[in-house]
């Protein structure tokens, strides 16, 4: 299993909490961190600004499709951004902890 951190912005705290709980209940994530962020982006031909909640999801690369399926059901955006970044190294204890939670 290859560890990864996923990044996903959510419209608000309620949406972030729904996605967080769903991922944890399905054991697709060992931990989900939530951070308020200010996003600026191109959308519909304009530069837009939005306050969002950024999720940082500790999981594995192999879980991308399963995580994406849950996000697609619960996310309010027509086009959300879900990205996975591989973890090249971490401490042995963190590695064992994540493996213990999500299996694989």
- Give, in order, the helices and strands: EHEEHEH
- State the domain count: 1
What's the shape? elongated
Tally of helical segments = 3
Q: In whole angstroms, how far apart are the ends?
A: 6 Å
In short:
The chain has helices at residues 13-25, 64-74, 92-102, and strands spanning 3-10, 31-43, 46-60, 82-86. With 104 residues, it is α+β, with helices and mostly antiparallel strands. Strand 2 and strand 3 (46-60) form a beta hairpin.
Keywords:
104 residues; alpha+beta; Alpha-Beta Plaits; elongated
Structural notes for this entry:
- By secondary structure, this protein is α+β, with helices and mostly antiparallel strands.
- It has one domain (3-102): Alpha-Beta Plaits, CATH 3.30.70.120.
- 34% of the residues lie in helices and 39% in strands.
- The protein is built from three helices and four strands.
- Strands 2-3-1-4 form a four-stranded antiparallel sheet.
- A hairpin with a 2-residue loop joins strand 2 (31-43) and strand 3 (46-60).
- The longest helix is centred in the first third of the chain and has 13 residues, at 13-25.
- The radius of gyration is 14 Å and the shape is elongated.
- The N and C termini lie close together (6 Å).
């Amino acid at each position: 299993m290859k560890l990864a951190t996923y990044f996903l912005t959510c419209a608000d705290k309620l949406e972030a909490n729904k996605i967080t709980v769903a991922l944890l209940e399905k054991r697709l994530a060992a931990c989900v961190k939530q951070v308020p962020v200010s996003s600026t982006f191109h959308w519909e031909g304009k530069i837009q600004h939005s306050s969002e909640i950024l999720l940082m999801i500790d999981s594995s690369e192999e879980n991308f499709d399963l995580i994406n399926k849950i996000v697609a059901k619960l996310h309010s955006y027509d086009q959300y951004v879900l990205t996975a970044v591989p973890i090249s190294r971490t401490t042995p204890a963190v590695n064992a902890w994540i493996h213990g939670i999500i299996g694989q």
